[in-house]
Amino acid sequence: MSPKRVTRRAFLSSAAKLTIGIGGILTGCTGLFYYGAVTHRKVGSEAPPKNIVLLGKAADLKLLQGVTVYDYEAEIVDAWYTKPVKGFVYVTVDEAGRLLIMSPTCSHLGYGKASR
């Protein structure tokens, strides 16, 4: 029993259909993810995002002497996942009068939360 021969025309037709099908699936998935991201975002909100913590007015913070510790509570929002966090940051002013805000937590992985 010999295998069935596939003509060049049949092969190209099948390959084109497969390519168009995969392209359509990828386009549809991308469109769904984009739609989810756009509808999840609240546009025009006057309140700052929950993952930004307000420590005070910049003019008041620039009057600090030495290093001051500020406690905070925030919500980390990552796509559809929200996680409440508590922590602290160190705030000081450099020689040029610029605010320096330092966190003991790794900004990439969230590890290394120091205790005080």
Summarize the entry for a quick read:
The chain has 116 residues and is of the alpha+beta class.
Written description of the protein model:
- There is one protein chain.
- The protein is of the alpha+beta class.
- 32% of the residues lie in helices and 24% in strands.
- A hairpin with a 2-residue loop joins strand 1 and strand 2.
- The longest helix is centred in the N-terminal third of the chain and has 33 residues, at 8-40.
- The chain has a 3-stranded antiparallel sheet, with no helix packed on it.
Q: Based on CA inertia axes, which overall geometry fits?
A: rod-shaped
Describe the main β-sheet briefly.
3 strands, antiparallel
**Uncertain segments:** none
- Which radius of gyration do the C-alpha atoms yield? 27 Å
**Separate helix tally:** 2
Termini separation (Å)? 79 Å
Query: Which series of helices and strands comes N to C?
Result: HHEEE
Q: Can you count the beta strands? A: 3
Strand content: 15-25%
Instruction: Please state how the strands of the largest beta sheet are arranged side by side.
Output: 1-2-3
